[in-house]
From TrEMBL:
Annotated TM spans: 12-30, 50-67
Alphabetical keyword list: Membrane, Transmembrane, Transmembrane helix
Localization, UniProt: Mitochondrion
Chief localisation class: mitochondrion
Residue ranges of coiled coil: none
Organism expressing this protein natively: Prunus dulcis (Almond)
GO biological process: one example: mitochondrial respiratory chain complex IV assembly
Domain of life: Eukaryota
Name recorded for this polypeptide: HIG1 domain-containing protein
InterPro entries: Hypoxia_induced_domain (IPR007667), Rcf2 (IPR040153)
An annotated GO cellular component: mitochondrion
Domain HIG1: 1-76
Length: 78
């Protein structure tokens, strides 16, 4: 787990891009199997799903960064 955390810490943009691309791929695969939409609509929906996933990941990363910084500041005080 530490190896993954260190890689993500060093390659933040690549990790976010990979999550975005996998979100698009997963959404396209799901919509192709489940709904009879036109390809253009599938792509629009996939992009929206990937954006929502990316925002959720960025929010989680911001919360984690805040928590980590808060804990470091707290340890310095003690």
């Amino acid at each position: 787990m530490e190896a993954i955390q260190s890689w993500v810490a060093e390659h933040k943009l690549k990790a976010i891009g990979a999550i975005w691309v996998s979100g698009i791929g997963a959404s396209l695969a799901y919509s192709r199997a489940r709904t009879p939409l036109k390809p253009s609509l599938r792509l629009i929906h996939a992009r929206m799903h990937a954006q929502a996933l990316t925002l959720a990941v960025l929010s989680g990363a911001a919360a984690y960064h805040y928590y980590e910084k808060h804990e470091a500041d707290r340890q310095k005080e003690n």
